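Work Package 3 (structural annotation) set out to generate three-dimensional models for the target panel prioritized at the project kickoff. During this period the team completed the workflow that converts sequence records into discrete structure tokens, so that structures can be stored uniformly alongside our sequence database. As a representative example, we reproduce one entry of 142 residues exactly as it appears in the project archive.
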Amino acid sequence: MEPSERSGRQQRRVLIVDDEPDFVALMAEFLAELPEPPTITVAHNGQAAVEAVRHDPPDLVLLDVHMPVMSGLEALEHIRALAPMLPVMLVTGTDCRSASQGLSAGVFAYLPKPVDLRYVCCLVDLALRSRAGHGAPLEPAR
């Protein structure tokens, strides 16, 4: 059962996990401008992300690789154990090895920093539609 079906919500939920406040603000602002804006939850490290997924799984996770307390790759292992079908997008700067490890672990997509917001729009739309199992594509924000 989908998280939104369990609680009666129609609005999709995205968990942004990053220790850089500017990146979190950019992504939250961008996602708020989508035609069907999701509810945004934020975690600033991998451990907080795991707890957020354990407490109330979102519909999508944007997960940074390099963070304090628990790395994104370590958090990904725990998230996969808790919610194997939850779409996770791995976000990293120039760390190709981490991107490769994440893709091998089954992440939905890899987002290189700095992110291309048009690409993010398409991937978020695709991930949320795949999670919902239906829906028309969103138009990119301009």
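The longest helix spans residues 117-132.
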